Amino acid sequence: MSAAAEGHQRVDGEARIELKRAADGTTVLADLFQRAPCRVLFPHVEAGEPMQSVLLTTSGGLTGGDRTHVAVRVGAQARATLTTQAAEKIYRALPLTGDALVRVDVQVGPESWVEWLAQETILFNGARLRRTFSADVAPSSRLLAVESIVFGRTAMGESFDTGMLHDAWRIRRDGRLAWADALHLQDDVSQLRTAAFGFGTSVACSTVLYVGPDATHQLAEARRLLEGCCVPAAATALQGLLLIRVMADDAAEMRAIIMKLVAGIRHSAAALPARLPRVWYC
């Protein structure tokens, strides 16, 4: 590592959240550990909403060499929503500083409902991000998760043309691998993105995943919600998983579609209000 790289401070943040069902049927915080720049807030929620945890990074974004790890454990028969305060920004990495490492691990106990509703991750040109999302879901439980990537702030004339993105998912049911997926873009990202087998003209993409025994039933609801959608989008179900992919030429348009889609699925699958956490509307 160069002397210049050694002179820059790097973050190593962590948040561990454990939630459990209390005797009165509510979900409460059982344990919390947080290390800067990771921070967790617990706002009051509207009637009928699960307990809510809002995650944020006080550093204002991440760059090469930064690391964050969020570990969530939800006990039996609990109901929880985890979301992020705002879009996460991944800035240009300096030479020899390595990748920004973002790791999320979720464990869902029996007969529980958990939502991981992350707002967009925005990649600046030259950013290097290696992100993993893993979840182990009990057979009787359900998980609704969303992660989105924006290839630069196009409204500011920016684009993600060089750098690296490795975005990996690992979903387990009762400890057994049920689904694995990874997206890898490196070096001449612009050429890879615009290739015929890539993203074409799209500047943003999103993955919505629902894990639960009623995934096939929710597939019909997802396709209904996508009717009339004017961007590339598709949904499929396999062995207790519902997978939805959305791409768009405009990040704001994709966000509106994702909000409608996730709100509809949480209402259909868990009889929750057809809306997202308040931070999504700020």
Model description:
Helix content is 15%, strand content 46%. The chain contains four helices and 17 strands. The strands form two sheets. Strands 3, 4, 6, 7, 9, 10, 12, 15, 16 and 17 form a ten-stranded mixed β-sheet that branches. A seven-stranded mixed β-sheet has the order 2-1-5-8-11-13-14. The protein starts with a helix and ends in a 12-residue tail after the last helix. A hairpin with a 5-residue loop joins strand 1 (12-21) and strand 2. By secondary structure, it is mainly beta. The radius of gyration is 19 Å and the shape is globular.
Enumerate the spans where pLDDT stays under 50 for 5 or more consecutive residues: 1-5
The sequence of SSEs as H and E is: HEEEEEEEEEEEEEEHEHEEH
Global morphology: globular
Kindly report the average pLDDT value: 94
Number of helices: 4
| Biggest sheet character | 10 strands, mixed
How does the helix and strand content classify structurally? mainly beta
**Compute the gyration radius: what is it?**
19 Å
> Helix coverage percent of residues?
10-25%
**Which percent band covers the strand fraction?**
over 45%
Work out the number of β strands: 17
**What is the rounded distance between the termini?**
40 Å
